[in-house]
TrEMBL record:
Known catalytic reactions: ATP + protein L-histidine = ADP + protein N-phospho-L-histidine
One Gene Ontology MF term: kinase activity
EC number: 2.7.13.3
Name by which UniProt lists this protein: histidine kinase
Species classification: Bacteria, Bacillati, Actinomycetota, Actinomycetes, Propionibacteriales
């Protein structure tokens, strides 16, 4: 069983990503790095001169140019904090030590303390090799605290000497020198701990963003594959419809041609009528075939969302009543109205158009049941043989939370309508509810 210390170290290593295979991208030195370094240097030099003017640097023996150099070189380190994070962290630690030994008042300036803090934080946040980061950061922290411990030891010796000579003046619970060193240790523990914690948080946030991006890319790829599969399924359905349309047309032509052959000698008028029917049937079959093939050739379309629906290639407007009856009463009140400008116009609709109308209503009702709060749906079919066949499905609901679809169903409606040169209007209504309306042109060749 592991000890508490081992468990803490294991948790800390996992939190810092020691065994994580992900590597944070290392950007080149960019404009933001230059702006940061230049801004820090300008503020640092201004602060240095303000402190000098207030008498805060009277005890510094180094020349002014050396003080400026110390501030400037510290600021320049920030240029490479993302590109070479561990190198910059080591150089910043060295800079702190040298400046602290030679010019402690300059090293203690807030601006330089910020530089050291950012350098160490960046080392933790941007290091690609996490094990090397732990070694480098641990070495820096141990060295700095060893330096402080040496100062603490020296401070204790001084305090003992002051006590022996009776020169010490206590004004609180702790001896003055020991208290000064102790507060220094506490401040530095917060300082270095905060830099390491901030760097770890930054690294983990970057890793999380990268994972989310990878997941988004995976989802997009999967959605693309599903879309392609939906297209294949829809095109297979269209191909089956094409087979049925052509088979029906060829059968009708065969029957009419056979009838014409039998009466050709004794009843030329009946034979002429039969051949005219053959011509009309062939033209209708060719037209429907071209439209369905056009839907197959067009760019990538989409499938309806209900992939389990039964094959209904023989369906048409006359079958809408049974379709509506299946849905009516299942939480929906569905009405169907068929408006004919000419008597029997619905029965004379081309089979491809009738099937497209049926599919449109089928898909619209499926979408209402799955994704809408509607309780009432109106289905209206209008047929004018001289102009158009139109289907309109209107509901009174709003999108239901948590049920947003892929949009494949609506795009499937659009693709089928495009195969018949139809016009599509799909979307919410200003007065509330949702509408699906498709108008198919009729005319010569239907």
């Amino acid at each position: 069983m592991s000890s508490p210390v081992e468990r803490v170290l294991t948790w800390l290593g996992a939190w810092l990503g020691v065994d994580d295979v992900w590597e944070r991208p290392r950007p080149a030195i960019g404009r933001q790095d230059v702006v940061l370094a230049a801004s820090v240097e300008a503020v640092s030099l201004l602060a240095l001169e303000l402190v000098r003017s207030s008498g805060g640097l009277d005890g510094v023996d180094a020349p002014v140019w050396a003080e400026w150099l110390a501030v400037s070189t510290g600021s320049v380190l920030l240029l490479g904090r993302r590109r070479w994070p561990l190198t910059v962290a080591l150089l910043a630690a060295l800079h702190m030590f040298v400046a602290g030994v030679t010019m402690p008042q300059v090293m203690a300036q807030v601006s330089l303390q910020i530089v050291y803090f950012v350098a160490l934080l960046s080392g933790v946040a941007w290091a690609r090799d996490r094990r090397a980061m732990v070694v480098v950061v641990s070495s820096i922290v141990l060295f700095m605290f060893a330096w402080l411990t040496w100062q603490f030891t020296l401070g204790s010796a001084v305090q003992d000497w002051l006590d022996e000579e009776d020169l010490s003046t206590d004004v609180g619970f702790f001896p003055p020198v020991t208290a000064a060193i102790a507060i220094t240790l506490l401040v530095n523990a917060i300082y270095f701990g905060g830099a390491i914690a901030g760097g770890g948080v930054s690294w983990r946030a970057a890793r999380q963003r990268a994972r989310l991006q990878d997941q988004a890319a995976t989802i997009a790829a999967q959605a693309g594959r599903l879309r392609e599969q939906a297209v294949i399924d829809e095109r297979l359905r269209i191909a089956r419809d094409l087979h049925d349309v052509v088979a029906h047309g060829v059968s009708a032509m065969g029957i009419q041609a056979g009838a014409a052959r039998r009466v050709l000698d004794r009843d030329p008028d009946a034979a002429r009528t039969a051949l005219a029917n053959v011509e009309e049937a062939s033209r209708d079959a060719v037209t429907q075939m071209r439209r369905l093939l056009g839907a197959l050739r067009e760019g990538v379309g989409e499938d309806a969302e209900d992939g389990s629906r039964a094959r209904t290639s023989e369906a048409g407007v006359s079958d809408l009543a049974s379709l509506v009856a299946e849905v009516d009463g299942q939480g929906l009140a569905v009405t169907l109205d068929v408006v004919e400008e000419q008597d029997g116009a619905v029965a004379r609709l081309p089979r491809g158009i009738g099937l497209a109308v049926y599919r449109t209503v089928q898909e619209a009702l499926t979408n209402v049941r799955r994704h809408s709060t509607a309780d009432t749906v109106s289905v209206v079919v209008r047929v004018d043989e001289r102009a158009y066949a139109e289907v309109e499905v209107v509901d009174n609901g709003r999108p239901r939370r948590g049920t947003s679809g892929s949009g494949l169903g609506q795009l499937g409606i659009r693709e089928r309508a495009a195969g018949h040169e139809g016009q599509v209007d799909i979307g919410p209504r200003v007065t509330g509810g949702y509408r699906v309306r498709v108008r198919y042109p009729l005319g010569a060749g239907g």
